[in-house]
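Sharing a chain and its predicted structure for anyone who wants a worked example. Both blocks are below, sequence first, tokens second.
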Amino acid sequence: MSDPSPSAAESEQPTGHARSLLATLRRYLVAGHLVAVPLVITRWVVISLVQIMDRTLVLLPSAYRPEAWLGIHIPGLGVILALVVLLVTGLIAANFLGRRLVSLWEGMLDRIPLVRSIYSAVKQLMHTFLSSDSRAFR
């Protein structure tokens, strides 16, 4: 005869209420990951970039380093140095002489096979990201 009691495997399955509780917990866990993981990765990337830029300060003569003036290390001063270098580079590249220098430099880079491929790809990406044209990503 058959036993009317449920088998052991069937009794271990969660009931309807427990299933909805597990589904809710899973949904909250996934939502937490969707919020936390991008935040953690963004924080890590920003901190890494600031640390890399701060290391560029060693290119300055030791008498001109901020630690020599202030006596302490201030994180982020490398970012300011990078911004100043980019600003000066943009200032030079935007005038007639700068455009001519950039053209000569690109001509030299265009003669080196591997460098040409990398430079043209990065240049195209930068034009796409910085383009004011709304069709840049289409």
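Comments welcome. The two ends are 70 Å apart (CA to CA).
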